[in-house]
What we know:
By secondary structure, the chain is α/β, with parallel strands linked by helices. 50% of the residues lie in helices and 13% in strands.
Amino acid sequence: MKPAGIASGTLRITLRVIADFLIVQAAMLAALIAVALQFQTGSEQSVRLGLVELRHYYLAVFLPLSFLFPGFYALSGLYTTSRTYSTALALRRAASSAAIAALGMLAGSFMLPNSATLPRAAALIFAILVTIGTPGIRWLKHTLFEHETAERPAAVARGELVLVVGGAGYIGSIVVRKLLKRGFRVRVLDSLVYGASAIEEVLDHPRLEFVRGDCRNIQDVVSAMRGAGAVIHLAAIVGDPACDQDHKTAQEINYAATRMMIEIAKGEKVQRFIFASSCSVYGASDQVMDENSQVHPISLYADTKVDSEEALLAAANEGFYPTILRFSTIFGLSPRPRFDLVVNLLTAKALKEKVVTIFNGEQWRPFLHVADAAAAIVRVLESPVALVGAQIYNVGDSRLNYTLTDVAAKLVKFFPSTRVEYVENSDRRSYRVSFEKIKGHLGFTCSKTLEDGIYEIKAAFESGQISDYGAALYSNVKYLKQHGSPVQTDALGSQVMAALAQKA
């Protein structure tokens, strides 16, 4: 069952379709009347012939073609996704859709065989009126009935407590800083598998509370969620190689703990739940994947993300509003740097070793700077649940869909002496991703380019901030190999994880 206010009701959509259809009819009738008034200076016979021709055009040509307008509007999302846009963006989308539909209809009418022609003046008047009227009726509704939006569940307010599970990690350490900067109270739950260095500088912040605990431990999670207005769930064994080190632990942390957190969040009346998923759920495809595309996980890591997504969406109701963010392949510098990510690793190799190896260079990947990943989380948190509740968003930017060969070319521009070696292997994972939904719903686009990420990593090496990129701390899989998987010390928690690790 979807949360109230999220799905568009059939009646509401029907009324919008009817209103738009009437606007189209009114615009054409007004245009025809304006032209007919110009006939008054002619003879009685010419006036009569002109009126007959206009009447024929309206009934035989325009009326059948006018049904294309609601169809085109539906394809443009005016009856579904655009209602969740900001007012300004929704009005712009309505105006552009009306203008394109009007031009298409006029072009179609001229191409019809033996059809009456529309005077240029009438065509111009019609195009102007329909382009103004379609967004105009929406603006009028918004102006007269603003109280409707006030009834929607609100965004998380500044000053409210937000729990960040995994707040000392690669993405989480940036999320925490952004939340503090924007006035939220922040509680971090983290077991510090990779240490506390990423959040040490903010531990003394007056609006930050740190709880060292395990997301698999019931007592730790209950204590951390108490009083929170929202949960941002970033805790995970991240990446295919890291998950392959210990399947049991990966299943517990990436999936079973999510199921447990869902139930605890409901018990604690926490309505907002933001979950970090991955575009790796798409597996391999020649198509551009959007949120409605079939997922095809081909690794344990991706499997756990798909399973968690399904559990969250199944749990959604009027009191629990999960939002799933499928992140692109992340790159860039963070308080906890990582060099087990393709762009970061290749940048380090180009700088330090002057040679990079590209496996299957024609593979496509969507890329996302870690700071933009954090910004997307905050954007969702600050958006009304009527907009983002029970939604899946691909997080990234279509401009950052690149082949691995493209990545190599950008590296060579920064490091001209770099030698690029191309190798083919059996890994054929390749996917491009559409980010139109998050752009349309939330106005989100990436602020950082691939070049920005390469430059900042280069600068970090040159300043001495990073020296040995091969250190275990900078690689999830190396660290887990060296130190072992995080141990679950709570007996009850172990039993709960064993039970919840089984798919529902």
